[in-house]
Design goal:
Shape: elongated
Structural class: alpha+beta
Helix content: 25-40%
Strand content: 15-25%
Oligomer: single chain
Order of helices and strands: EEEHHHHH
Length: 196
């Protein structure tokens, strides 16, 4: 199942370039089930960190000119990665709030706690976890989606103890087998990213 391409918003990052501070607005979109950078806004900044939490008003002040040395000094990969981290944090907060609502609703509507007997071991990652944690995080994982899944599994507590890279890879494989993540781009490869 492919998700439609959707714009996810602009995520602000403050960067120090050559001793001056700059605002970089990183525009993110979900394209072909992967979160990617589709645009950047670069502006001189002299307002401090307040613009990360307050509406942006660049006002008047002493700004530095945007020149080739400024553009060359922008650590592009780190800036985009920081925006992806902010997006994942926002997504994790929204998921936690949704979990709280679901738990409250389930407790309100649930009668006596009668569970049907199951045979065999209980799977560690159910379909809901594969869809909500693994697939959702994989899509927004940037250049290191398995590493992002590993961190999300640790943060969610879905697996006991520290989560290994191998456990995260197996979770991605299970989510892909269930159809929550589209097939790998290059046939014959076991994983889409390097293990290191």
């Amino acid at each position: 199942m492919t998700t439609p391409n959707t714009y996810r918003g602009v995520f602000p990052v403050i960067r120090d370039i050559g001793g001056s501070r700059f605002y970089v607005g990183v525009h993110l979109a979900l394209v072909h089930d992967r979160l990617i950078c589709i645009g950047l806004d670069l502006r001189a900044l002299n307002l401090g960190d307040s613009m990360l939490t307050e509406p942006i008003d660049l006002g008047n002040g002493d700004w530095l000119e945007i020149t080739s040395p400024v553009l060359r000094g922008l650590p592009l990969t780190e800036t985009i990665e920081q925006a992806l981290v902010r997006y994942r944090e926002m997504l994790n907060q929204l998921n936690a709030q949704a979990d709280d609502v679901r738990t409250t609703q389930a407790q309100a509507t649930e009668g006596p706690n009668v569970q049907p007997q199951r045979r065999g071991p209980r799977p560690q990652l159910d379909d809901d976890t594969l869809r909500r944690v693994v697939a959702a995080t994989y899509r927004v994982g940037g250049r290191r989606p398995v590493r992002a899944v590993q961190e999300a599994l640790e943060a969610s507590g879905a697996l006991p103890g520290p989560v290994s890279t191998d456990q995260a890879r197996r979770a991605v494989v299970r989510a892909r087998a269930r159809g929550f993540i589209p097939p790998a781009k290059s046939p014959g490869t076991k994983y889409e990213e390097d293990p290191a």
